[in-house]
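Worked example (supplementary).
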Amino acid sequence: MTPPPPVTGQAAAGRDTAVLLKNATVVDTRDGTLAPGTDVLIRADRIVDVRPGIVVTDGPEPFTVDARGKYVVPGYADMHAHPLGQRPEEEARDLELLLAHGVTGFRQMSGSLALLEKRASGTLGLPAASPELLALPGPLLLTPVNAATGEQAVAAVREQHAAGADFIKAAMVTPEVFFAAQAEALRLGLPIVGHLPVGIDVPKASRIGMKSIEHLGPGVGLFACCSTDGAHVHANAAGQPAMKVPPFKLPFMERVMERVVKKLVINPINRTKPADIENLRLAVRTFDDDLAAELAERFVADGTWQVPTLIRVKTQELCDDPAFANDPDLRYMGEATVRSWKAAARKFTAFPAEARETFRAVYRRQLELTKLFDDAGVPMLVGSDCSGAAWVVPGASLHHEFDELARAGLTPLRVLQMTTLRAAEFLDATDTMGTVEPGRRADLVLLDADPVERVEHLHRIAGVVRAGQHYGAAELDALKERVAARA
Ligand SMILES: [Zn+2]
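After joint prediction of all chains, the assembly is encoded as:
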């Protein structure tokens, strides 16, 4: 079977092209104000004018879109994603799926020296229909793989800095390694983000400088700080080996570990030991709102961001939920991938019912914690943690994340902000993204309904503009069908 042809947007990007969105309702992401009857003029890949009644008298005739009844918002940013570093056909599939779901930018959360080199030389080879790569790190810091000691971690940070990494991502690291890496990253002016496994003093890490914490921990990391019995939760969890690998470094170790990690990330919870489940139960039972509020204050004071990736923790903690196995969007993923996700769900069902109830209770607390953080003013971002995680379909999962955030109690406007304006603030890029204003990049989503009114309206995508190319509903459908046909 010959593969379907590539899908391109209308008004191919270039110096001489223009797109005019006529009579749209532009949504101000700062406060949710709606400006109906507004035209948006795009030249090449920039927004050049936003006001009623634009008449184009010079330059090329614009490709005009009748946007009456449509709401225009900035394109969505998936601020925790891993589409890169896979096989080329998987990369293309996931990037196209992201774009087809309104994602016009993503923060890649794991990198490699090879990816950094490709980006530097302009040879990443992303498909024509792709969101923008917003930030790229080097390899994850993993104890003991590439960061067995503080000294090794410092060397790894320096190597990644020299290779052009935008930030350092800590994954499974010991406190010694984490704090050594953090000090070196900050000395070099490089943000450090990622996981704070148990054992690491979270308030201390925040105070010193942690740009973003992912997945609310993960595990009991943050919960230990919110527990009236925090000392026990901490002690119970401390001293676990991060990962079992030979105590010496092999030249091919990183390759081997890449494969190990790939398997592990499908559902890391499946490795939870009975003692860890007991500890989770203790953390959930002793969760204290006041302690959580104290932690939130710390994050606000330090400017430490949270990327809850609720859909990622939910698909782990409720892995056997039949809704996941029956998700029609699985048609986009290859058969082998779906098989591995089903296997992970089967493995999950081997946990005793009591353990699975504990995981569900943990998830309820994570929703509570997210709401509490939002109420306290902790800056947060939307992230899906695609690709590689069980049941997390690229693009579609970002919409599930919107829904989970709403379920936690966040307002539709806040959710919209977290995937647009807040992402721009996080990246220090408010002059080029995050709002629909002249000078911003022409990365937009057109919606059929008001997103400030209901979070579900963020799903009702009528069109996407990416780098000045307009994809109408037909092109977006074709993009999805092309992915499904190749799966
Ligand atoms: Zn991740």
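Two points are worth noting when inspecting this output. The chain is about 40% helix and 15% strand. The chain has two domains: 18-75+436-486, 76-426.
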